[in-house]
TrEMBL record:
The keyword Transmembrane applies. This is Sulfatase N-terminal domain-containing protein. Residues 289-324 are annotated as: Disordered. The chain crosses the membrane at residues 38-63, 69-98, 119-146. Keywords: Membrane, Transmembrane, Transmembrane helix. Residues 504-711 form the Sulfatase N-terminal domain.
Length: 843
């Protein structure tokens, strides 16, 4: 019994020691490249101080405990060791899967839902493997660790209190070492050296790397995110806001006169447009203010405050484009010449709109092109010299994204004819406008949807705090509802039912994935959709098209093909009701873990010159890309079969990209600022639009203004709705992509801000005027990151630093003074932008 008790004590200490040291070594390995190697070596001993004190405390409790106290101590220490073991194993699992550093607060938020827990459990295998390895090593090392610590601590204790531990002397075979003064001398010398190094070392980044795992775990779980660095309310580049740059309002343009230092205005409703008379749908709150009732309520609040009954609520801030220091508009420019000529030659009616959000879809796979970096990586694994299979290989790659190739008109270069793309209504010189250079507004899907649907910038806080707030701009569905309401008020009964300009819009959202993760159902409903379809609506036996063969392919739901009959019915029902269709469809098969249905024929895109594990994740992803490419062909076939192809604008956009080992050390999107997580496809497809392939260094915040501009330019709205759209398009931050894009104006840059998953830790700062990107950390435990996408388009050699000053120095040495000066501006603007979003979101 005593022997068993001693073994349990030794095992607990061994698990704690090996888990703690493994965790610390992993954290140091993840960060050592971001600091000077000499300083990393010098300060290395200080990183383990918290662990050493923790190990000593646990040893002392286990060693000195007796009786019932020994049992209680063993239980408490055992619990701590188990927590350390599980946390360390989770760290290794997360690093194995993503290459990143786990944040426990974010993991806690994800794990609060059933779908989120399934996401976390997808890393269970590497977690168990890590725990098993540490557990076995702990069993083997337990006697040695206990023996060594006992000898060392007894020696140290005897030098301070020689007689204090005589009642618990260790076995006789170790007593001979206690009289040696060497352990004491080395311990005291090391202690003095480490203390001195601790005093002189900077807090950032070394405090973060020194923190012991249990304390880091407790700190992250007790608060949702790290404290953001403070910044001024005033725009940091005031010289750009000089009166000489102010612009007067004219027509529907509100002018530009930034006098507040931020883009908000509490008195915006004093200038109501004609269309704002009467009741307004949700999303138009700032135009609803200014009535006598509102004034009375405001007086009541002031009176209550002055009487001391309760403080008055702060006035709500609304976005005002005339006050936005960053806003650049191009609506005063002519339409792109090719589009202008096409509109002079033919009518291009847009009676219906379909928006397709492509989960985790990168620009380089929409379509895949010959001689791209991804193609070169796949080609390098082949063995053409021996088997002469290059033609067959090209045929395999040509079948990967034929629908995307047909839709965009961007030739893959594999020189293969695609018979399965024949159901796409288009022509050699017609089909739509596709873009290179577009970045997502957020690498978190739900935040990305807000950017795309509502033309707003996402809130830089973790996860979907926006679900409990009102977007500071009307979403597209709410604008369509406003047009519906105005038809209620003024529609003339003489208008025929078949006049699309007088028909109301039916707004529909459909996906085969769950609507429960991160409260998506609430999120979608708040943005103004009339009708929704989620996995929860199709997986019941009473569902219209339920069948026994329905197969879940991931923790979020079903393949897109399961919603095909539902979408067909939605289209037909809308048309039969003499309504205009606004359908938004969100794909999900291309999300981790990149599974496809069992009957889908998977292919290997990497050849024999690659190991099984080297490219298997990317290979899985490419198979889901091919599955969704085929699905897009089906979806376009539904539009064609409904007879509305030549009347439908279909917008294809990636919600965000994703990274793999082929791109960078970190994979997927979590806390990953790499360019592969941001570059997304964007296509405005219409069979009668001219074929155009353009480059625009912008974000998806331009989608909503572009759609409104297209509706106006093509005459697809009646006079009343056109006035609404013309007035509202001038309210948004984004530029219209059917006009020449302005990368800068009067010294101001068109800034590209991107909120990085999960939202509250990193911000991507870029500019349309330069090829530079800054990864701006929102807390002290993450690095700054700088890249130049002109010289390094795939961001293979980023510059890292723990302060903006050190980053500026490194950027100046590598990329010159222009890059260094831009970095200083980007840091200031990025910090201001963070606080500005919170002001505009009334957060």
């Amino acid at each position: 019994m005593v022997a068993n008790r001693y073994f349990v004590q030794r095992l607990i200490l061994s698990v704690l020691v090996l888990s703690g040291i493994s965790s610390k070594l992993l954290r140091l390995y993840q960060h050592y490249q971001s600091m000077p190697f000499s300083l990393f070596v010098i300060y290395f001993p200080t990183f383990f101080v918290p662990e050493i004190f923790l190990f000593i405390a646990v040893w002392a409790l286990l060693y000195n405990a007796s009786g019932r106290f020994a049992v209680a101590t063993a239980i408490g220490a055992g619990f701590l060791a188990c927590v350390e073991l599980v946390a360390t194993s989770s760290q290794f699992s997360f690093y194995y899967v993503t290459g990143g550093e786990i944040r426990w607060g974010a993991a806690k938020s994800i794990g609060t839902s059933r779908r989120g827990m399934r996401l976390l459990l997808s890393g269970l295998v590497p977690t168990v493997a890590s725990a098993t390895v540490i557990g076995i090593a702990s069993c083997i090392a337990a006697p040695g660790i206990w023996h060594w610590m006992t000898r060392w601590l007894h020696s140290l204790s005897n030098s301070l209190r020689p007689k204090s531990l005589t009642s618990k002397a260790p076995p006789r075979d170790t007593l001979e070492d206690f009289v040696s003064h060497k352990p004491r001398f080395y311990t005291f010398s090391a202690g003095l050296l480490i203390t001195g190094l601790w005093v002189i070392r900077p807090a950032v980044p070394y405090d973060h790397m020194t923190e012991a795992l249990p304390f880091a775990l407790l700190g992250d779980l007790s608060s949702h995110s790290k404290t953001l660095k403070a910044t001024s309310d005033r725009f940091p580049l005031p010289e750009l806001l000089s009166e000489r740059f102010w612009e007067s309002p004219h027509g529907s343009y509100k002018g530009w006169k930034p006098t507040l230092g931020h883009a908000g205005d509490t008195g915006y409703a004093n200038q109501k447009p004609d269309w704002a008379a009467g009741s307004l749908p949700p999303g138009f709150e700032r135009w609803s203010l200014g009535s006598d009732a509102d004034a009375g309520n405001l007086q009541d609040d002031k009176a209550s405050s002055s009487n001391g009954n309760r403080p008055a609520d702060p006035p709500r801030v609304y976005y005002d484009p005339a006050q936005d220091p960053m806003r650049i508009t191009n609506l005063d420019s002519d339409l792109l010449e090719s589009l202008k000529e096409a509109l002079q030659e033919r009518d291009i009616p847009i009676n219906h709109i379909v928006m397709v959000f492509l989960e985790s879809t990168r620009k380089d796979v929409f379509p895949l092109k010959s001689n791209s970096r991804l193609h070169s990586q796949m080609r390098a694994t082949q063995n053409f010299e021996e088997d002469g299979s290059e033609a067959e290989f090209n045929k395999t790659l040509a079948s990967l994204t034929p629908i995307a190739e047909s839709l965009t008109g961007e030739h893959s270069g594999f020189n293969v004819t695609h018979a399965n793309a024949s159901n796409i209504s288009t022509g050699p010189d017609r089909g739509g406008i596709s873009f290179d250079g577009v970045l997502t507004g957020s690498t978190l899907s739900a935040k990305s949807r807000l950017v795309n649907y509502c033309g707003v910038q996402a809130l830089p806080v973790d996860f979907m705090a926006e679900n409990d707030l009102v977007p500071y701009q009307p979403c597209l569905m709410q604008i369509l509802e406003l047009m519906n309401q105005r038809k209620n008020v003024t529609a003339d009964s003489d208008f025929p039912d078949d006049d699309p300009l007088e028909q109301k819009w039916q707004t529909i959202f459909a996906q085969s994935a769950t609507g429960g993760f991160q409260d998506q159902k609430k999120h979608i409903r708040q943005m103004g959709f009339h009708q929704t379809l989620f996995a929860e609506d199709i997986n019941k036996k009473r569902s219209k098209y339920w069948h026994h063969q329905m197969e879940r392919i991931n923790y979020f739901g079903y393949p897109e093909t399961e919603v095909r009959p539902y979408i067909r019915d939605m289209i037909n029902d809308t048309l039969n009701a003499n309504k205009r269709l606004f359908l938004s469809h969100f794909t999900s098969t291309t999300h981790h873990p990149w599974n496809t249905p069992a009957d889908f024929s998977r292919k290997d895109y990497f050849g024999p010159h690659s190991s099984l594990s080297q490219h298997n994740t990317m290979n899985d992803y490419l198979n889901t890309i091919r599955f969704d490419d085929e699905w897009l062909g089906d979806l376009m076939g539904l539009i064609e079969n409904a007879g509305i192809a030549n009347q439908t604008l279909t917008v294809f956009v990636g919600d965000h990209g994703t990274a793999f080992k082929e791109d960078c050390p970190m994979t997927e999107t979590y806390q990953n600022p790499h360019i592969s997580t941001f570059r997304v496809p964007l296509l405005f497809h219409h069979p009668l639009l001219p074929r155009m392939h353009l480059t625009a260094n912008t974000t998806t915040i331009s989608i909503l203004p572009t759609i409104l501009d297209l509706l106006i330019a093509t005459g697809s709205l009646n006079e009343r709705d056109s006035k609404i759209a013309l007035d509202l398009v001038n309210e948004y931050e984004g530029q219209s992509l059917i006009r020449p894009f302005r990368a800068s104006h009067n010294g101001r840059e068109a800034w590209n801000m991107g909120v990085i998953n999960a939202g509250g830790t990193l911000l991507s700062v870029g500019s349309a005027a330069v090829p530079y990107r800054l990864g701006l950390p929102l807390s002290d435990d993450l690095e700054y990151r700088f890249t130049n996408t002109e010289n390094d388009p795939h961001e293979l050699s980023p510059v890292l630093g723990w302060s903006i000053e050190s980053l500026v120095v490194e950027a100046h040495l590598r990329d010159g003074a222009e890059a260094a000066n831009w970095l200083r501006r980007a840091d200031k603007v990025g910090r201001w932008w963070i606080k500005e979003r919170k002001i505009l979101w009334n957060y």
